[in-house]
Amino acid sequence: MKIDFTPGSIYQLTHLIAGTYDMGFTAIDNIIAYREGQNEAYSNRFATALDGVDIDNRPIKITVPGPFTMSQQAQDDYYKDEVALAHDYAAAVNAAIKDLFAAGADIVQVDEPYMQARAEKAKMFGVKVLDRALDGVTGTTAVHICFGYAAVIHNRPPAYSFLPEYESSKVQQISIETAQANLAGC
């Protein structure tokens, strides 16, 4: 068995912004790095890496970070315009999504927790950049929203205020995290 290690997320982001790192590889590497230690994905990577291990021909769902969320997490020393930054992230995510479908993904899910966390700002340009990330994509797409990590985010609203905004989006499925206590309206 050959195990490849992925560069760290800070390394990837730094080189991605500098234009010296390919978004397709960044997205694929981040599938492993992002999911490490979460649910069963980390162990599945190793368990299914062996020749002869059957994964039952299940649909392949890949998760990528969303352009709005990345624009809210990034320190913007270059653009000085978060909307322009988000649009360029969307273009990069769009290329990655198309590459993932070309490589055999059945579903690509865009993680956008900051659309809920910063719903007022997301109403201004969040769906627009999500739709830009989905331009020309022909496979099944989903968007995931949540309140963030329960161990970190202690004061959560009782419902998803941004959920109705997705009605006008190109996204085909919505993945809603409902494990938070006292969640209403789901």
Oligomer: single chain
Helix content: 40-55%
Compute the number of helices. Answer: 7
Question: Cα-atom Rg, whole angstroms?
Answer: 17 Å
Structural class: alpha/beta
The termini sit apart by 43 Å
Low-pLDDT stretches: 1-7, 25-43
**Series of secondary-structure elements, N-terminal to C-terminal:** HHHEHHEHHEE
Strand content: 5-15%
Strand order of the largest sheet: 1-2-3-4
Shape: globular
Could you give a short account of the major beta sheet?
A: 4 strands, parallel
Total strands: 4
On the 0 to 100 scale, the average pLDDT is 76
What this model shows, in words?
This protein is α/β, with parallel strands linked by helices and 186 residues long. The chain has seven helices and four strands, in the order αααβααβααββ. It has helices spanning 9-18, 23-35, 41-47, 67-73, 82-102, 113-117, 119-134, and strands at 61-65, 107-111, 140-145, 173-176. Strands 1-2-3-4 form a four-stranded parallel β-sheet. Residues 1-7 and 25-43 have low confidence and may be disordered.
Please outline what is shown here.
With 186 residues, the protein is an alpha/beta fold. It contains 7 helices and 4 strands, in the order H-H-H-E-H-H-E-H-H-E-E.
Jot down its keywords:
186 residues, alpha/beta, 7 helices, 11% strand, disordered N terminus
Which helices and strands appear, and what pairs or packs with what?
Blueprint: H1 9-18, H2 23-35, H3 41-47, E1 61-65, H4 67-73, H5 82-102, E2 107-111, H6 113-117, H7 119-134, E3 140-145, E4 173-176
Parallel strand pairs: 1-2, 2-3, 3-4
Helix pairs in contact: 1-2, 2-5, 4-5, 5-7
